[in-house]
Amino acid sequence: MPVLVMKFGGTSVANIDRIRRAAKRVGIEVANGYDVIVIVSAMSGETNKLVSYVDDVSPLYDAREYDAVVSSGENVTAGLMALTLQEMDVPARSWQGWQVPVQTTSAHSAARIEAIPSENIMAKFSQGMRVAVVAGFQGVSPEGRITTLGRGGSDTTAVAFAAAFDAERCDIYTDVDGVYTTDPRIAGKARKLEKISFEEMLELASLGAKVLQTRSVELAMRFGVRLRVLSSFEEYDETAGTLICAEEDIVENKPVVGIAASRDEAKMTLVSVADRPGIAAAIFGPLSEHAVNVDMIIQNIAEEGRTDMTFSCPIDQVKRAEKALNEAKEKGEINFHDLIADTEVAKVSAVGIGMRSQSGVAAKMFQTLRDEGINIKVISTSEIKISVLIDRKYMELAVQALHDAFELEKAS
Amino acid sequence: MPVLVMKFGGTSVANIDRIRRAAKRVGIEVANGYDVIVIVSAMSGETNKLVSYVDDVSPLYDAREYDAVVSSGENVTAGLMALTLQEMDVPARSWQGWQVPVQTTSAHSAARIEAIPSENIMAKFSQGMRVAVVAGFQGVSPEGRITTLGRGGSDTTAVAFAAAFDAERCDIYTDVDGVYTTDPRIAGKARKLEKISFEEMLELASLGAKVLQTRSVELAMRFGVRLRVLSSFEEYDETAGTLICAEEDIVENKPVVGIAASRDEAKMTLVSVADRPGIAAAIFGPLSEHAVNVDMIIQNIAEEGRTDMTFSCPIDQVKRAEKALNEAKEKGEINFHDLIADTEVAKVSAVGIGMRSQSGVAAKMFQTLRDEGINIKVISTSEIKISVLIDRKYMELAVQALHDAFELEKAS
């Protein structure tokens, strides 16, 4: 029988009633003729509770013990989901990560899945079991310790199972009914997308649309897993949610499919850096060593051998960045007059595969912002994305104006 | 280094502060030169919460899934305890049941430990780790599924580790400071025992003194594990708690060491049973098949080929017992006029190894009860125990009177 992977997030299994509701959806797919692999998150709030225990005990914790503690929430949901399905006469059993086993690297709290042997579960399917309920977010290291995949890791578990079992589709049930052209809380005209390409979703996911863990989209793209995001709270039909798929499967071809916005950015400016060959390496080397994720970079034209260098990074890495750069200055590796952190900024991005073939997208974006009197601080572009850093107070205005300018409320 | 096993029950690890307190005790034993195996229960309330989830989902649950769910509480505590010890600079790590592995039978929810390979943990001890924190109550079946050992199973885990690692002692930290001559809530004069023999503890444990899981005492007796019960809430000293040990190690030799009382009994009477050879088998066979634990049995002298048969069983098995006997009657296997269940009874027992060599204990017990005007309904005796079934309303009075009569408030 064809295999379907269904993943239920924390809010979709927040209590026994919701687990029953999710189990009913699973039952429908079983009746449709699928062998189903269900990936479950912890009941919402559980993982946060466990994390707070760990934080309380040990601020600088041993990640191996952290993983052993925080992975337990998923085990509870997996067992309860299997029991609920059995109550509905659907043959089901639960698997914890180590039982499959979901083999991962030893990078605790941010482990990567290396292999998922399918024999055990396939053998049970062939014996009449119809649903394998697997605890998401977790795996086992080569040393036999429990690992976790980072927050949102259950999405990645789901996609990895879909790839390993050659599933027809991977349905991610969550508390939103799909991927939107932008955050509906910011722009009321935001429209749910029927389809979006992996590449676009990846840009949106990493730009702050918190629907899916970025890693899961990467994995889906690499293995060609058809991914669907849909709500577990709405009536189900065949076209529910948003399908994330290969570019070829998308007919609609607007230049921009979505506007992403992120408040979690900071702008750092090194004032009056001595300009010399290798200066960029001297600046960004230490930042990288201190695990600062530099996003946008802008270098002013040098005057009299000195220049200003501006970059952006996540707001919670500002302290680390300052430490890295001041240390490098003390060591004499770089020389600057001042280091200014601006944490009152936001990043707004337009994303769309169509901009590869259609010109004028950047011009339209800049003009729209200019018409609203919004000053652009930093620009960065990729093949399918244009991002700008602006004052945070203008973020909502910028999103709304761009959504209008690119007519994203219209379906085609 | 010598190995010590320390087990902390749910109330001793109920929150982070208590885990810290328990960890401090562990740290002291490490400083004393022990390699320590710590067995932890779930934080108090957690297992009940998980059990209620399962009951809510599925009244007739699959015990394999039940075990997968309810075992998760211990995993959380184990990780948190290891982190807390690390914070105190004590080299520690956690083990879940399957990681040791604690090999059990497949009797889910009531599994028995079959083997505990010591190599993994011993290897870590030899590499400098000082504390192995092990999740109690759980193991893994030959099929690789998670099992649990029944409520209170962490005590059994602790004793089994003490046996497997040839530990010097197994300390059970709980919310009471030892084993008492009787329930202090019933008799204010109850006195904490310094030592008690395995045999006596076994009688007391199975008679309703809920300090230790019966199975753990059996195991300790079989493997000669010196077991100590003590409070995690009191100042520690060398003589804290009660030592449960072999008879030879006890000097004190009173005929009675403790009075146990249990409200969870029911008296069942089969009125006017046709008396014939094999009638006892015909009655108790079906009861055994329906998993009714018959305790005391009394058969009246037959008159005109008919007799009354009385037995006691746990109060929550009365329905099952009635079903078993009525079915047997319908099948014509037994014949009786009436079946009367009396659930307003209590069992009171006097326990002591000394009664083997000292006569007159039974006589003194019966006389004491008579002096208080308490009618004895059923009597049963073993080598080191005399039990009587009485009206429940007299239970406290009987316990107090017997405690006085045997002078249990005095140490010798």
UniProtKB/TrEMBL annotation, chains A, B:
Keyword Repressor: no
Residue intervals of the ACT domain: 268-348, 350-412
Enzyme class (EC, first level): transferase
Record field: catalytic activity: L-aspartate + ATP = 4-phospho-L-aspartate + ADP
InterPro entries: AceGlu_kinase-like_sf (IPR036393), ACT-like_dom_sf (IPR045865), ACT_Aspartokinase (IPR054352), ACT_dom (IPR002912), AKii-LysC-BS (IPR041740), Asp/Glu/Uridylate_kinase (IPR001048), Asp_kin_monofn (IPR005260), Asp_kinase (IPR001341)
The keyword Kinase is assigned to this record: yes
GO MF annotations in UniProt: aspartate kinase activity; ATP binding
Keywords attached to this entry: Amino-acid biosynthesis, ATP-binding, Kinase, Lysine biosynthesis, Nucleotide-binding, Transferase
CDD domains xrefs: AAK_AKii-LysC-BS (cd04261), ACT_AK-LysC-DapG-like_2 (cd04923), ACT_AKii-LysC-BS-like_1 (cd04913)
Residue spans crossing the bilayer: none
Enzyme Commission code(s) on record: 2.7.2.4
A Pfam family that the UniProt record links to this protein: ACT_9
Any one Gene Ontology cellular component term annotated for this protein: cytosol
Pathway annotation from the record: Amino-acid biosynthesis; L-methionine biosynthesis via de novo pathway; L-homoserine from L-aspartate: step 1/3; Amino-acid biosynthesis; L-threonine biosynthesis; L-threonine from L-aspartate: step 1/5; Amino-acid biosynthesis; L-lysine biosynthesis via DAP pathway; (S)-tetrahydrodipicolinate from L-aspartate: step 1/4
Matches recorded under SUPFAM superfamilies: ACT-like, Carbamate kinase-like
List of residues binding ATP: 7-10, 174-175, 180, 185, 210-211
Residue positions binding substrate: 47, 74
A GO BP entry: homoserine biosynthetic process
PROSITE patterns given in the database record: ACT (PS51671), ASPARTOKINASE (PS00324)
Assigned protein family: Belongs to the aspartokinase family.
PANTHER family: ASPARTATE KINASE, ASPARTOKINASE
Name of the molecule in the record: Aspartokinase
Organism this protein belongs to: Rhodalgimonas zhirmunskyi
Organism placement in taxonomy: Bacteria, Pseudomonadati, Pseudomonadota, Alphaproteobacteria, Rhodobacterales
